[in-house]
């Protein structure tokens, strides 16, 4: 069978290539060609190969699925998360979809809810859908077990893999802690305290390490003489602030390890008639907009740049799908978001 009619058999076709053309070139019926290009199992492998070769030769690509059969790609990726509330996974997904959108790639989102059995179930389901790759997002920014060797590339985001051979993208929590304290110092604050969350979280320790290092660089002592570790909650923010003010009433700034904690800090400062930011400046961490923007006053905070992390994860996954597989841990710098809870000291 020849190429579709045109002015010369050696010239490109002068009309759109159709499924009929592919069927004729492959020597099969139109129905068989359609089944072959749509991946239906009743078509013999040798017949499918003839149809795909014919479609490739004629540059026939009526839809993404047909392209996938020719390129061996499905145009889909999986995003597997254990973040129940979506606080971290949703911004990462939004960033990833921004990057994938220009390439017409669809994203399947699966929530494992912190359950290893559920995670394995979702993993099998995603692989059965022939996804081209996976982005794995953990519920907390600490190392998680690697998924091991899989038939598709995997990028770990927010929670790094415990295998250095995997590629992980994480937020710079040490840099974020330093950035928060630097902002307070630049506003003339010298009695800076730090109230944060669970000490078993690497992020809590890293943010504290960054804060303490910046204070040391400036020759300043930590107000309250300790890092106040506790729960990631407003209740802990309130309780810790009361204890802090009893121990050191001279405090003029508080760096809270999360926006939830910062909301509790603000509650007690209001109760004690300590003006924010005139008397005490407050800065949080996470830029959880529903909390930070609606605080009284609106809360300055450190944004983990999760949408950017998602975009970079998508870009790294594209590269891995193309054969450029990376490894190790890549750190994404956070951003300072300035609102009304911080201001220069009067």
Offer a concise description of the structure.
The chain has 346 residues and is an alpha/beta fold. It has helices spanning 19-26, 30-37, 45-57, 64-71, 89-101, 116-128, 173-186, 202-218, 234-247, 259-271, 289-292, 306-321, and strands at residues 76-81, 106-111, 134-137, 154-157, 167-171, 192-195, 227-228, 253-256, 281-286, 300-303, 328-332, 335-337.
Care to describe what's here?
The chain is of the alpha/beta class. The chain folds into three domains: 19-71, lambda repressor-like DNA-binding domains (434 Repressor (Amino-terminal Domain)), CATH 1.10.260; 76-171 and 306-334, Response regulator (Rossmann fold, 3-Layer(aba) Sandwich); 173-303, Response regulator (Rossmann fold, 3-Layer(aba) Sandwich). Helix content is 41%, strand content 15%. It is built from twelve helices and twelve strands. The strands form two sheets. The chain has a six-stranded parallel sheet with strand order 2-1-3-4-5-11, with helices on both faces. Helix 8 (202-218) links the parallel strand 6 and strand 7. The protein is elongated and about 85 Å long. The N and C termini lie far apart (87 Å).
Query: What's the number of helices?
Result: 12
First-last Cα distance: 87 Å
Number of strands: 12
Strand order of the largest sheet: 2-1-3-4-5-11
Proportion of residues in helical segments: 40-55%
Query: How does CATH name the architecture of the largest domain?
Result: 3-Layer(aba) Sandwich
Which geometry do the CA atoms define?
Answer: elongated
CATH superfamily assignment of the largest domain? Response regulator
Percent range for β-strand residues: 15-25%
Number of domains: 3
For the sheet with most strands, the description reads: 6 strands, parallel
Gyration radius, in Å: 27 Å
CATH fold type of the largest domain: Rossmann fold
């Amino acid at each position: 069978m020849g190429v579709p009619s045109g002015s010369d058999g050696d010239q490109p076709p002068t009309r759109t290539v159709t499924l009929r053309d592919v069927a004729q070139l492959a020597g099969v019926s139109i129905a068989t060609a359609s089944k072959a290009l749509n991946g239906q199992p009743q078509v013999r492998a040798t017949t499918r190969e003839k149809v795909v070769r014919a479609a490739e030769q004629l540059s026939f690509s009526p839809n993404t699925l047909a392209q996938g059969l020719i390129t061996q790609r499905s145009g889909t990726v999986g995003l597997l998360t254990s973040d129940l509330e979506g606080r971290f996974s949703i911004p990462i997904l939004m960033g990833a979809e921004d990057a994938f959108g220009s390439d017409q790639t669809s994203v399947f989102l699966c929530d494992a809810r912190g359950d290893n059995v559920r995670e394995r179930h979702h993993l099998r389901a995603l692989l059965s859908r022939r996804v081209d790759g996976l982005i794995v997002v953990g519920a907390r920014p600490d190392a998680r077990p690697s998924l091991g060797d899989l038939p598709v590339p995997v990028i770990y985001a927010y929670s790094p893999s415990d295998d250095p051979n995997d590629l992980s993208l994480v937020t710079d929590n040490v840099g974020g802690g330093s950035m928060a304290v630097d902002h307070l110092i630049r506003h003339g604050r010298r009695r800076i305290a730090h109230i944060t969350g669970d000490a078993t979280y690497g992020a809590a320790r890293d943010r504290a390490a960054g804060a303490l290092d910046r204070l040391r660089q400036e020759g300043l002592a930590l107000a309250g003489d300790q890092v106040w570790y506790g729960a990631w909650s407003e209740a802990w923010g309130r309780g810790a602030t009361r204890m802090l003010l009893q121990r050191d009433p001279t405090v003029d700034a508080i760096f809270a390890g999360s926006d939830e904690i910062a909301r509790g800090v603000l509650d007690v400062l209001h109760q004690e008639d300590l003006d924010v930011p005139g008397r005490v400046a407050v800065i949080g961490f996470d830029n959880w907009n529903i909390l930070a923007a609606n605080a009284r006053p609106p809360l300055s905070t450190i944004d983990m740049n999760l949408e950017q992390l998602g975009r970079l994860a998508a870009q790294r996954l594209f590269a891995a799908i193309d054969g450029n597989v990376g490894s190790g841990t890549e750190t994404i710098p956070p951003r300072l978001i300035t609102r009304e809870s911080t201001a220069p000291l009067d």
